[in-house]
Amino acid sequence: MAPTRRLRSCTTVSCTPSLSSCPAQRLSAPAWAASLLIGLMSAQAMAQTQAAAQAKATDDAATTLPTVTVVAPAAREARAGISGLADTPAWNAPVQAVRLTQDVLKDQQVQRLADLVKLDASVSDAYNTTGYWDYLSMRGFTLDNAYNYRREGLPINAETRIALDNKAAVELLKGTSGIQAGVSAPGGLVNLIVKRPEGRVRTAEIGFTGGSSVMAAVDIGDRFGTDQRFGLRVNAAAERLDPNIDNTKGHRRLLALAADWVIAPGSVIEAEIEHSLYRQPSVPGASLLGSALPSASSFDPSRNLNNQPWALPVQMAGNTGTLRWKQDWGTNWQSVLTYGEQHLRSDDRAAFPSGCSKDGLFGVYDRYCGDSTFDLYDYRSEGERRTTRALNAQLSGELSTGTIKHALRIGLLRSIHTTDLNTAAFTYAGEGNINGSYGAYPATAKPDFANTDRHERSTELSISDSITFSEQWSAWAGLRHTWLKRRVALTEPGIADPASLDQQVTTPWLAVGYTLAPRTQLYASWGEGFEARTAMSTPSVPYANAPQALPVHKSRQIEMGIKAQRDHLQWGANLFRIERPEAGPVSNVGGGTDYVFDGHSLHQGAEGFVQTQLGAWGFTGSAMVIDAKRRDTQSGLDGKRPVNVPEHTLKLSGSYRWAAPLPITAQADLVHEGRRWVDPDNTVRLPSWTRVDVGLKAQQRVDGSNLTWRLGVANLFDKRAWREAPTLTGHIYLFPLAERTVTGSLQVDF
Questions:
Q1: Measured between alpha carbons, how far is residue 215 from residues 101, 277, 389 in Å?
Q2: Most buried one in 475, 545, 565, 666, CB count within 10 A?
Q3: How far apart are the first and last CA of the chain?
Q4: What is the pLDDT of residues 581-634, one digit of tens each?
């Protein structure tokens, strides 16, 4: 919605000028060398005997834990492929990673990524509103939408609304993401798993999704041919969007296709592609009124400050697909070669409230006026294009050195990211009021705001080893070397020279585990990650050193924990410490403002989770307590707490299942988030809040079909509170809890 947000996502550093001679639209020779790497490194594995592979299968059958089905409403698998530890049992993995299946997401009324915050205590809102893409934070750090999201393990850009209809699961990896990614924010990673052919599937679903919104979806799949070597799966969805918020009518659609071909036993080619379209007016946030926090109880959550006759909806379209070859070479060695592309196009438009030009000599740009008014801008950024291409080659296998067993994984990831924008309009249109009482102003859009283009190439070479010393002791070691080239430039030439970066960074990761009881492990880990920043101005914060590429700085994490798994019980607890260099505005000797590294943030916390099933009763809970502070700053923020980081979070979910005469499951969810600071100086703080959701699920069989009825009520007691207070590129926003919302659906499996 706001151009300040656009600059945040697009102005981080980019390639060197020399990249102009390299095609930005194709992968270069080092990327295609991945297939050669796979071939060379697997040649030795192919020479081994098939008997060893069969022995491994027999051994695995004896040692692999049976699948535990837990019907608690927020049931989750603590094993996730995004952890990079392959098929390591959940209790034996020295990381905090979970997989949320589609059934869990449906039972919990999850319709978008922002709804994941109710399922895990480490995940919080970071700027989530109707009509825009989603922002998440993990362990107090906002995830970077351009770098912290994966799809089928490949990097994607999440600066779009991501459809979940064709996703089999969503995986969350918590903590420093250097184990799985090059450049990324340190909070964690989100990975989307696409539905694949898995036999006969015939599913149709209809429902209402809040307000007057209605949706319909189908999921059809089957296998064909000799020995069922060919698989096909189709997902389609359409939704009319009409939530209980003023001026937010819109629509979305999705069409997705996945296919595979089993060439021979152990050799599979998989392909999938999806097209999505999302069109809906956005809802800007409220803000501080001078130095005062407006009353949440008197603010109507159905109010939309983006409500002018000329206001146009945000539109986001995307085409994304992958092609993958999986090969089992026998003797415990496998390779996976995956290529993916993502093409996004968006029109970002709003009658956008921002700042207060009448407070102070030059105005106040990070909040609204003390008298409840604000400046209203006509913002339009048309024809935004974002493209991501990635090729990932991996070879994994097992070997032994004496009594020590190794599980090796070697990978090469080559990716290209481009963001091509046009000069946007950010034109003053008039004055509005937070109560929504302002007159209609004529459209005034003029292309007067220089957006920022980004072109980037990265090559990541990684190696990891899972080492088993004995039945009690294990260790893990990983190393990732990233060569990053970036170039950013304003869409208006002549304003400033382009910024560039060409740097190589190596990030290690180490862990050790001790099995102190059956399926119970103590572990400790240490790892690094990194980000790269560029000084780029926004309308409210003109930097004197823009555009200047800042050198890469590393983040570091230490984590210690315990994890256990029984037949009907999973639990764990851990301590973490993450240190991250911070960049921000600092006054210079000339009286201006520079964007430079300014100390660091230190996040120390404790997490815990439990999931159990006792007869008809199910329970899932997670909690986090976090102490986050700024240190060694030049801007007077030492000892201050970062904004929008709750002091503690608690997410609980319980269920009871009646088996007869009709299987019905009743669930209740409690979402609690503690106090958080609104401004960097820690003078205004949001109170804690608690929300209760309830749901019913009934299952029946009619004429050979399985029917699943779901009914949910979010915010059962219609709680009024400010849900979050994010600050993006210098502006403070306030978003309320949504009012009581009823959803329902009927799923038919033929």
A1: 20, 14, 32
A2: 565
A3: 42
A4: 998 888 887 778 888 888 999 999 999 999 999 999 999 999 999 999 999 998
Q: Which residues pair with 220 in a beta bridge?
A: 202, 234
Phi and psi dihedrals of 468, rounded to 5? Answer: -110, 115
Tell me if 274 sits within 8 A of 219, measured CB to CB. no
pTM, 2 dp: 0.89
Question: Are 578 and 603 contacting, i.e. CB atoms less than 8 angstroms apart?
Answer: yes
Distance CA 86, CA 180 (A): 12
For 98, list phi and psi in degrees, rounded to 5: -135, 155
DSSP state of 364: B
pLDDT tens per residue, range 699-729: 999 999 999 999 999 999 999 999 999 998 7
Task: With H, G, I as helix, E, B as strand and everything else as coil, classify residue 373.
Answer: strand
Query: Pick from 555, 549, 472: which is nearest to 507 by CA?
Result: 555
d(C-alpha 12, C-alpha 536), whole Å? 8
Question: pLDDT value at position 540?
Answer: 62
500-509 pLDDT, tens digit per residue, is 889 999 999 9
Q: Is residue 508 within a helix (H) or strand (E), and if so which, with residue range?
A: strand 499-517
The continuous run of DSSP H or E covering 32 comes out as: helix 29-46
What region, left, alpha or beta, does residue 228 occupy, with left being phi > 0 and alpha being psi -120 to 50 degrees?
Answer: left
Residue 643 CA to residue 82 CA, distance in Å, equals 29
Name residue 410's beta-bridge partners.
Answer: 395, 463
Question: Between residues 436 and 9, which one has the greater pLDDT?
Answer: 436
